[in-house]
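U., I forgot to send this yesterday:
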Amino acid sequence: MKNNILKNTLALFIVAFFILYLPQVNILGTINLKGTADAGFFSSDLEIFEEVVDLVSEKYVYPPDHKKLFSAAIEGMIKGADSDSVTLSKKTNINILRYKDKKTRYRLNYDRNHDWDELQKVYYFLHDNSKRTIEKKDLESSAIEGVMSSLDSYSQYMDKDTFNKSMRDTEGKYGGLGMVITMKDKKLYVVKTMGDSPAQRAGILADDSFVSVNGKEIVGMHIEELANLLRGYPDTKVTITLLRPADKRKRTYTLTREIILINTVEYKTLDNQIGYLKINSFSKQTEKQLMASLKMAEKDEIKAFILDVRENPGGLLTQSVKVASHFLFKGRMVVYTQGRDEDDYHEYRGLYKNSLHQVPVVVLINQYSASASEIVAGAEALNQ
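Result:
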């Protein structure tokens, strides 16, 4: 009995051995694995990029053109390679990419799976032929930036560090130069400088446009990227070049960063019991500062308000809803958002029962009032 068990066990082992180690026979036809061997079977290469494309496909307000997305991603990688050795020739039906004495061809169509394969081909071509001097993570970041730039001027991708910086910015203080910046017609401008800040003391003016920061040209740069260059640890220096539209002259400043405490709400009493409220941005501190100002206005027996959101670039949606709610009756529509799908719909309504909805309000805006400022201005206009 034992001998039979041993024989059967040995037979199973031998069969299993041959199944595992027989030469691989392609039953399903030729499988092209070119360009994927280096990645490994369970590779995480381009994992974030693929997730970004999925999110854009599902969540972007308009259905994206995948050929356009992948074309922008590939051109982003080529640009990110930042090498004179990389050249791209575009033909009618084919694109030829050269890296030194090597070349590859790729062709995009409107099939997402096909274009994904072509993008991977370019990704590994650039990485492998650079002898790995071009990092995979840098190629992936460049591909993602290419995708985002193909959507509009405001969509952008934030990695973990950039996102954390953005969240810290909404806390109401940062190390920087004390200026508000905005993007208009794909150019980055100074909206205003803050009182007694390095920017104000240097004589920087509203409408000055950015040319470079620390020698790096800002053409094509997103506003968040510029903000990150301007901000930093206190007592560190940054050199910026600005173009002044009044005289068409470039001016270069070397400034020392300081802790900038953002007072987002300013209040003063005008004649005829009119209260003036200047809201500079919508950070986590804004409603708290507004409530302090409204208490002062109550003591001053204010009968009407001027709400000034000129040069206010916006901020947190939740704060704009809370600010508007102080001047609207409870339940009044402040703003709604509508995604691509019909059920992707959200309403934000007035929050407070004891609001100042019966008090007259005049809202001041200008071309630099954006985002959350426009929400507040629109909600108040509809309430009058």
